[in-house]
Specification:
- With 293 residues, this protein is of the alpha+beta class.
- It has two domains: 156 residues, no CATH class; 120 residues, LytTr DNA-binding domain (OB fold (Dihydrolipoamide Acetyltransferase, E2P), Beta Barrel), CATH 2.40.50.
- It is 50% helix and 19% strand.
- A five-stranded antiparallel β-sheet has the order 5-4-3-7-6. Strands 8-9-10 form a three-stranded antiparallel β-sheet. It has a two-stranded antiparallel ribbon with strand order 1-2.
- A hairpin with an 8-residue loop joins strand 1 and strand 2.
């Protein structure tokens, strides 16, 4: 492998490992389902990208196009439910997005084959030839959309969040310190109550029913406590410098040294700490408001 090939391979690998927004829930799922339906219906009905043999149609071509456009929506909803059950939203990256789209298109092509008897009067509906044809047609159309939309959306989000992160870095002094007290954190098991020094507190990271708490007093220290991130968030709610940036992270803004953006949100770097703290897309609005106070 020559130097150019190695460079291309590295760039491709780095691109595939980039964070990517998870669109398969809530409002995002509704939007993407609606766009997919409209684009599929419009493309099939008006462009007729594949051979149309009217004599074998059991219904008007519009309704055939409608059925072909609605099937992907049902499959997308089913697959999105499976992703949420598997908690796949965590660490969603471009490689996972592409793999998901591949499985999605394969499923759509297979189901399109299964419903051929409903819309086409053809003795060979159940042949291997038509199975391959339906899967091929689905991939041809799907790859056209993916090739155009995924890079465009990734670059749009990356640019937007990077620019916003730069503005935040320039707009105020993240390292500004104020006097913070030492508080007692009460948890369910009284003997495990502990004292927390707000000024030296760096961040907390969830781990099931436990939380890892990181502090800096001369050096970085970590302690493990039997408390959920939600319970800790409630205790620290009065302190405006402590903010939830992700469902698994609470961060002390006074120790943030740098903010960078990517397609999935922001990344926070704390002084003398290797771990990068994520700010998820759902938390960006609140984070921006808190930082700009």
């Amino acid at each position: 492998m020559n130097k150019n090939q190695s460079s291309i391979k590295t760039l491709t690998s780095n691109f595939l490992l980039q964070p990517y927004p998870f669109y398969y829930k809530g409002k995002e799922l509704v939007i993407i389902s609606s766009l997919l339906f409209i684009m599929s219906l419009f493309f099939n009905y008006f462009f007729e990208p594949f051979e149309v043999y009217v004599p074998e149609h059991k219904m008007d071509f519009f309704w055939i196009s409608f059925i072909h456009a609605i099937i992907p929506i049902y499959i997308l909803i089913i697959l999105s439910l499976l992703l949420r059950v598997a908690n796949a939203e965590e660490n969603w990256i471009i490689r996972k997005e592409i793999f998901f789209v591949f499985i999605f298109m394969l499923a759509v092509g297979f189901v399109q084959f299964l419903i051929r008897d409903i819309i086409y009067d053809n003795a060979d509906n159940w042949s291997i030839r038509y199975l391959i044809e339906e899967i091929r047609n689905t991939f041809l159309v799907g790859m056209l959309f993916v090739t155009i939309l995924v890079p465009l959306n990734f670059n749009r989000l990356y640019s937007k969040n990077s620019n916003n992160a730069n503005v935040l870095n320039d707009s105020y002094n993240l390292l500004k310190q104020i006097e913070n007290p030492k508080i007692i954190v009460n948890i369910k098991i009284e003997s495990e109550n502990f004292q927390l020094d707000i000024s030296s507190f760096l961040f907390a990271k969830a781990g099931g029913n436990y939380v890892e708490l990181y502090f800096k007093v001369e050096k970085i220290n970590k302690i493990l406590k039997r408390i959920t991130i939600k319970e800790l968030e409630l205790v620290l709610k009065p302190y405006s410098n402590i903010i939830k940036t992700h469902r698994s992270f609470l961060v002390n803004l006074h120790h943030v040294e740098n903010i960078t953006g990517n397609a999935q949100g922001y990344k926070l770097r704390l002084k003398d700490l290797d771990e990068v703290i994520p700010v998820s897309r759902n938390m960006i609005t609140n984070f921006n408001a808190r930082v700009k106070r």
